[in-house]
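Annex B. Sample input.
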Amino acid sequence: MTDAAGAAGRRLAYLEQLVRAELVERRRRRDWDRRRAFTLQLATVTLSALITVLLGVKVSTGAEQWLANVALALGALVTVLAAWATFFSYRTVWIQRADTVHRLTTLARSIDYLRAGLGEEPPAPEDVDRVHAEFEEIARGDHEAWIRIRQAEGA
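Annex B, continued. Sample output.
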């Protein structure tokens, strides 16, 4: 094995490890954003429905004032939760992270395919460079998408 072939093999092994680690982290973040988006949406809808019930229920005069005060407090909480969800854009970030996970999964399959075709042979340096360029494009695209989401929030 030539020195260049050995270097290409080491670089491919490094890329495999890097892609696998990124996939683990990006999946964790995607799932966290999905749960956060779902939780905030469910909370605002549930609290809004509860406010409607509290304001519409027929009770004695003393209890009516108390229920109106609770509904007012819940209305304020819904406003805060809605602002929180809008500011952090969990749903948008979740979708963007899902795209990145998909692209990284596709790259991992490409690496596996490349490895399967190698047998005992080292990879060609240009194949490793192509895989590295694709990984860098995915990372750059993910970062740029995240920046666009954050800039849109400020607009």
